[in-house]
Amino acid sequence: MRKITAFLLCFCLLSIGSVTAFAQTVSQDGTGGDSIISVTVPDSHILTVSAEHARVFYDGQWSKNFSVERLSSPQLLIRPENGYRVTRVTLNGEDVTEQVQGGYYTLEPVYEDKRLVVETEQVPVSTDSTHDISGTVIDGNGDPIPGGTVEIGGKTGTIDEDGYFTVEDVPDGYHPVTVTDGDGNIIGYTEIEIEIGGGETGVTASPGSSYIVTVSEGSGLRLDLTVTVDGRITVAHAAEVSPPRSDDMENSQTDDESNILLWVIIMFVSGIGVIGITFFNKKRRCGAK
User: Fold this and answer.
1) Which domain-ending residue is among 122, 140, 174?
2) What does the alpha-carbon distance between residue 185 and residue 66 come to, in Å, rounded to a whole number?
3) Which residue among 22, 29, 102, 138 is buried most deeply as judged by most CB within 10 Å?
């Protein structure tokens, strides 16, 4: 035991001596004084992105190379292309997929250059059943967010001054949901998966902060979206909007035809009345003469 202790002590002394000698030979001022070691710490680091069928956004801007402030914790938005889903995310070779929530990934304080790799897979999208999706977009205070757009699976709708939107012909399946402001900047993001169910229409939060929406085949859908300050979208409510039935449309068409016929009769009777009054007045004038 004593031999081992003595060996470790000698090893530590030799290591310290080597470091000291190395420091003395690195940079001397030429006058025999103390050694000077200069270390430059960068103000920022480069984040390199490699992503196929996906885009990575930082501060609302998309790029493959970002300059981030040293020791900052940047929040990235990872948005797959329509028809694709993110399957794996690595940072400098370390798997961080589970840390991606609702498309957002926040890095720990950055002290070196980083490389982010995003892997995706293609997801099937059924066009046999589509839905017109309408609803409202509000902020965390409940105020509408007008002037922007809502994109669901590549289909886009405009947000009016009351925060109301409509996106037509959205097929079943997995879709990215993006809300942009009037300048085209992304201010909110989430992911939904539309499924055909035999029960009630509803929305369920799934792992990863995405949502599963259950709806009847071919029916319309209402989604109320809330955009939080950190750029996430929460789906607070989902309701089915039934399309008009064929008999209702026939009744509506019959009512329209009846209204037209009624107006024709009224105009015909009114015309006869005007002609009769005119003829009667002329006859009176002739009799008076």
Assistant:
1) 122
2) 17
3) 102
What residues have CB less than 8 Å from 230, skipping those under 6 apart? 75, 104
pLDDT tens-digit readout, 87-125: 999 999 999 999 999 999 999 999 999 999 999 999 987
Whether the predicted pLDDT of 140 surpasses 70: yes
Helix (H, G, I), strand (E, B) or coil at 221: strand
Query: For residue 147, what are the domain limits?
Result: 126-241
Q: Are 116 and 91 in contact (CB under 8 A)?
A: yes
The reply to whether 115 and 137 lie within a common domain is no
Asked if residue 196 is part of any domain, the answer here is yes
Query: Domain containing 182 — which CATH number?
Result: 2.60.40.1120
What is the SS3 assignment for 10?
helix
What are 64's two structure tokens? Answer: 């493959």
77 inside domain? yes
The average pLDDT across 200-218 equals: 86
DSSP H or E segment with residue 236: strand 233-241
Do 139 and 228 fall within a single domain? yes
Q: Are residues 232 and 154 in the same domain?
A: yes
pLDDT tens-digit map of 142-185: 999 999 999 999 999 999 999 999 999 999 999 999 999 999 99
The model carries a pTM of: 0.70
Amino acid of residue 259: N
Residues 229 and 149 in one domain: yes
- CA 284 to each of CA 215, 278, 280: distance values in angstroms, whole numbers, following the listed order: 74, 10, 6
Query: Mean pLDDT of all residues in the chain?
Result: 82
Q: How many CB atoms lie within 10 A of CB 252?
A: 11
State the Rg of the chain over Cα.
35
Q: Which of 195, 241, 240 is nearest to 214 (CA)?
A: 195
Q: Which helix (H) or strand (E) holds 83?
A: none
Q: Does residue 48 sit in the same domain as residue 104?
A: yes
